[in-house]
Write a structure and sequence with these properties.
Distance between the termini: 31 Å
Order of helices and strands: EEEHEHEHEHEHEHH
Oligomer: single chain
Shape: globular
Length: about 220
């Protein structure tokens, strides 16, 4: 759930958790993949909400360090639980941290949510592996590159019969609810502005960078 305060900043509120004492922020978030999308989400979270980016998973050291300096540890050094080379490293750390916390040992804070910003073909294995932590999850689009992977994700995220989901899951189809698309839908489908629609030809006005980027998909 998101709400807007008098200051104009969006507040991310999940299951009534409205404050994270150690940071003064509402939610601590993990970014998996410090590329263009990971940076875009980190920038939006940092500038437009009172949540914070707390940890990063990125295999390339230079990108991981640059991301951390920009959004997490700034001029200092990463503390325990903030910098990881692979998502499996984070899972191992977080399971250990939770176990130590249950035993009453002093531990650092964990994260409440995760952004999956890896390459498209890696989404499925990352999402399925992260399920063990029951974090609120936002996956960058597409969800996966095969129907089998999509179905595997769906089955993995299903709660036991009769139970409610413990965490939110969403996919970053960011234009579905953009103002211009919502207005266009209203004009065409609800208002009938041009009468009955018999067919549609949609040509997406993409730039050259979209075509070059498609080689990673």
């Amino acid at each position: 759930m998101m709400m807007v305060t008098n200051s104009g900043k969006a507040q991310l509120v999940v299951n009534g958790n409205r404050e994270t004492p150690s940071t003064g922020k509402l939610l601590r978030l993990l970014i998996i993949g410090a590329g263009a999308r990971g940076n875009a989400y980190a920038q939006a979270v940092t500038k437009l909400t009172n949540a914070c980016i707390y940890a990063v998973v990125e295999p390339l050291y230079g990108k991981r360090a640059a991301f951390g300096r920009k959004y997490i540890w700034r001029d200092g050094e990463p503390t325990e639980g903030q910098s990881f080379e692979h998502w499996s490293d984070f899972i191992s750390y977080e399971l250990s941290r939770r176990d130590r916390k249950r035993r009453g040992e002093p531990v650092g804070p964990g994260v409440e949510g995760v952004f999956i910003c890896t390459l498209d073909g890696m989404h499925a294995e990352t999402i399925i592996a992260m399920k063990v932590l029951n974090l609120h999850t936002m996956s960058e689009k597409p969800l996966a590159t095969t129907l089998r992977d999509c179905l595997n994700i769906y089955r993995t995220l299903q709660p036991p019969q009769g139970a409610s989901p413990k965490a939110l899951f969403s996919i970053g189809h960011v234009l579905h609810y953009s103002p211009h698309n919502m207005l266009l839908r209203k004009l065409l489908l609800e208002d009938g502005a041009i009468g009955e629609i018999l067919s549609i030809e949609h040509t997406e006005p993409v730039g050259w960078w979209h075509f070059s980027h498609s080689y990673v998909r």
